[in-house]
Amino acid sequence: MQAEFRARVSMKNPVHFLALGFGSGLVPVMPGTFGSLAAIPLLLLFAQVSTLSFIAITLMASVIGIYLCGKTADDMQVHDHGSIVWDEIAGMFVTLLFLPVTASTLVIGFLLFRVFDILKPWPIGIIDKRLHGGTGIMLDDLLAGAMACGCLHIAINLWPAVLTLL
Fold first, then answer.
1. CA-to-CA distance for 141 and 113, rounded, in angstroms?
2. Count of C-beta atoms within a 10 Å radius of residue 107
């Protein structure tokens, strides 16, 4: 059955290429984790931009992701197939909003984001189940990113040494 879904997408199609996280979503195990890891080079690339530019990049990744994920899901004929991981990439950007991109924030942010994305606490789980299309695919991961971001900000404010752990 997996081959049937993959036959409906092409890495030569730029929409599919991006939605599948540059191919990271095609890893047969834990595609969401590999999609989240695929965000790290992009985060490092944009680490030195201004806060306003980082916000703009995050918003663009999120809005464009609605189209990318929705179109790829339609082409695959499966809602939120595991190989669609652009939502994880955008979620990782949300996780690091208003934070320095350092080894510590990347590792802790990655772990927090994966916990929220996998466990889907309220309201993430409700959105994941009830909202469909590109918006539904994106929104649960954006909320997971927001929750991870909030936790990371709290951790840094309570324990500033978090920034120097690694």
1. 8
2. 13
Nearest to 103 by CA among 24, 14, 166, 55: 166
Q: CB neighbours of 5 closer than 8 A, spacing ≥ 6? A: 76, 77, 78, 81, 83
The DSSP output letter for 27 is S
How far is the CA of 42 from the CAs of 48, 77, 109, 143, 154, in angstroms? 11, 29, 14, 20, 24
Does position 22 have pLDDT exceeding 70, yes or no? yes
Per-residue pLDDT at 5: 66
Max Cα distance, the chain (Å) = 49
CB 38 within 8 A of CB 49: no
Determine the pLDDT at residue 2: 61
Is the confidence at residue 70, as pLDDT, over 70?
Answer: yes
- Rounded Cα distance between 157 and 166, Å, is 17
Pairwise CA distance, residues 30 & 45, whole Å: 24
Task: Name residue, tokens 């790829």.
Answer: 72
Residue 166, exposed/middle/buried by CB under 10 A (0-12, 13-18, 19+)? exposed
